[in-house]
Design goal:
CATH topology of the largest domain: Rossmann fold
Structural class: alpha/beta
Strand content: 25-35%
Helix content: 25-40%
CATH superfamily of the largest domain: NAD(P)-binding Rossmann-like Domain
Distance between the termini: 49 Å
Low-confidence stretches: none
Number of strands: 17
Largest sheet: 11 strands, mixed
């Protein structure tokens, strides 16, 4: 029987899960692939942990470069994270003619173009299903399952930490600062949660999906990111009253002017399935011209859900390693000479509907002034919610939902509205998406 020898870099949460799934399901994996996939070496600075996880059944080293240069290793599984050392290791593995499996979204979003070019030149496989949405097979869906479609847009809840926080805020009426501590206690958020709550992690994943969906290079540096730290409980309650939920979405769309690539809080109708994805779960909606909208849901993180994707990649390597480069699915779904350097639109040029909340003094003519400014900017109103002033107060909230417009027009209108004498403070603006067509 054929054998595929694996060198595992990192035996932490995902690495340990990968080793467990590979060993526990070895017979099933071999039945599916006709190849015995064996871990022959583990590299980790924590030698004792590696010995404990593997029960001493494989060779252990604290030198990852020894693993990527080991002549007995056919495929390197990179699970150490980051994008400094991991980049050196992946490129060295490729240089040594080894296939690579990685769950490292940051590495690919920032250096994927270089890594894929090196792998193409060397004729080796780079597989990365686990880099986006954990155990959800969204990369395979985009690269293969929807290959007959012209992908129009992709939108997803692709960060479990922020989805957990927003779910707690909505269901329990808590403020962001009250929830973040609980998320950290439960292990959903890191001690420094910046990458999650500011949308950077989601932007890494969105960059990868956008490149595959539209056949373009990775362009993380051009992605727009806006996190959830400034979201207020008031706006989540008003959204609920109007039939919407607030989610942190990664959205990429193909337009005539270029590609939208953006991560930000978004209002979605509660009637949409994705609006009802709660807790730490992930979900991605992909719209193809032939198939229409399709939804992919599941665990976006965790030891075995992520390991499920890593092992599936290893199974693909086992099946395809002997095939010629021309017979393999290209890294970014499109043939390398057909990858197009599509422009990414600045956030000012994107098209969206909007939720606006303004605080206004309770006096005649205020609403007329606001609606005139919006009309002058060719922004039409879809719905409006006007709150009565609280007892002994002379100010009230007005909530406006608009139809789709260009963001720069919306921003110009907001600036004029904020300048009105009757408007108190800054407006709140949250983008809205239909995601149904």
């Amino acid at each position: 029987m054929k054998q595929l020898n694996v060198g595992l870099l990192g035996i932490g949460t995902v690495g340990g899960g990968t080793y467990t799934v590979l060993t526990r399901n070895a017979a099933e994996i071999t039945r599916r692939t006709g190849v015995a996939i064996n871990v022959v070496q583990v590299a980790d600075k924590n030698i004792e942990l590696a010995k404990k996880v593997t029960s001493g059944n494989v060779d252990i080293t604290d030198d990852a470069f020894a693993t990527v240069s080991n002549p007995n290793v056919d495929v390197v599984v990179e699970l150490i994270g980051g994008y400094g050392l991991s980049k050196q290791l992946v490129l060295k593995a490729i240089e040594n003619g080894k296939h690579v499996v990685t769950a490292n979204k940051a590495l690919l979003a920032l250096h994927g173009n270089e890594i894929f070019a090196a792998a193409q030149a060397k004729g080796v496989i780079v597989a990365f299903e686990a880099a986006v949405a954990g155990g959800i097979p969204i990369i395979k869906a985009l690269r293969e399952g929807l290959g007959a479609n012209k992908i129009e847009w992709v939108a997803g809840i692709i960060n479990g930490t922020t989805n957990f926080i927003l779910t707690e805020m909505r269901e329990k009426g808590l403020a962001y600062q009250d929830v973040i501590g609980e998320a950290q206690r439960l292990g959903y958020a890191e001690a420094d949660p910046t990458f999650d709550v500011e949308g950077i992690d989601a932007a890494h994943k969105l960059t990868i999906m956008s490149a595959i969906a539209f056949g373009m290079p990775m362009k993380f540096e051009q992605a727009y990111t806006e996190g959830i730290t400034k979201l207020q409980q008031t706006d989540m309650q008003y959204a609920e009253e109007l039939g919407y939920r607030v989610k942190l979405l990664g959205i990429t769309k193909r337009t005539e002017k270029g590609v939208e690539l953006r991560v930000h809080p978004t209002l979605i109708s509660e009637k949409r399935l994705i609006a009802n994805v709660n807790g730490a779960m992930n979900a991605v909606v992909v719209k193809g011209d032939a198939v229409g909208p399709t939804l992919y849901y599941g665990a976006g993180a965790g030891a075995e859900p992520t390991a499920s994707a890593v092992v599936a990649d290893l199974m693909d390597v086992a099946r395809l390693s002997s095939a010629s480069v021309e017979q393999r699915v290209p890294y970014l779904a499109f043939q390398p000479n057909s990858v197009a350097d599509l422009p990414v639109l600045p956030i000012s040029e994107i098209n969206s509907a909007y939720y606006l909340r303004l605080r206004a003094r309770d006096k005649p003519g205020v609403l007329a002034g606001v609606t005139k400014i919006l009309a002058d900017k060719n922004i039409s109103i879809d719905a409006m919610l006007q709150k009565e002033p609280a007892d002994n107060e002379s100010e009230a909230d007005i909530v406006i939902l608009t139809h789709v417009t260009v963001e720069k027009n919306m921003d110009a209108g907001i600036a004029e509205i904020e300048a009105l004498p009757a408007i108190v403070g800054k407006l709140v603006k949250i983008r809205m998406e239909e995601l149904g067509r």
